[in-house]
Amino acid sequence: MAGRKQEEGLKDLTLLGNQKTKYPTDYDPGVLEAVNNLHADRDYFVKFNCPEFTSLCPLTGQPDFATIYVSYIPDKKIVESKSLKLYLFSFRNHGDFHEDCVNIIMDDLIKLLDPRYIEVWGKFTPRGGISIDPWCNYGKPGTKYEEMAHYRLMNHDMYPEKVDNR
C-alpha cells in the first residue's frame, strides 16, 4: 500500500486515532503536533477554517465567537489537523482581545512549524453592534516570503466584504 510511512512522522503523533482524547480547558500550545512535509520541494498553501472558535473577553468574561482562517506555505513541517483543532479549542476559556488571539495563534504556529509564510484571520461575530476581524501575517525573513508578506499586508482587505451579520 502506498502512502506515508511511520518513519515519515506518523510514529510521533499522539492525538490522531486516539479514542481517549482529552479536550484542553485552558490555552495549551503544547497540544500542537507536526509531521514532516513530504513536499518541501515546492510551494503550496495549506488552509484551515475553524468556524466554531470561541474565546472570552478578558474584562467581562463574555464569550466571543469567530471563524479562524489559517493559511500557510509549509517548509519542513506541517501541522497535524486534530492537534490544531484541540489547540484552537483550548482558547475556549482563554481571556484575550481578538487581536491578541490571532497573533498568539500565528506565533505558536511559527514556533511549531517555521513556515515559509503564514497568515491568520479572525472573523468575529458582532457584539455590541460591531465586529472585529484582525488579520496578521509573516514571511520568513530574508526570503521572497518576507516580501510576499509585506505585499499581502499592504494590499489586504482592499475590497472589504459586505458584512451581513455573518
Automatic annotation (TrEMBL):
The active site is at C57 (thioimide intermediate), D64 (proton donor). GO terms for molecular function: preQ1 synthase activity. Pathway: tRNA modification; tRNA-queuosine biosynthesis. One of its GO terms (cellular component) is cytoplasm. Its EC number is 1.7.1.13. Belongs to the GTP cyclohydrolase I family. QueF type 1 subfamily. NCBIfam families: QueF-II (TIGR03139). This is NADPH-dependent 7-cyano-7-deazaguanine reductase. It comes from Weizmannia acidilactici. The gene is queF.
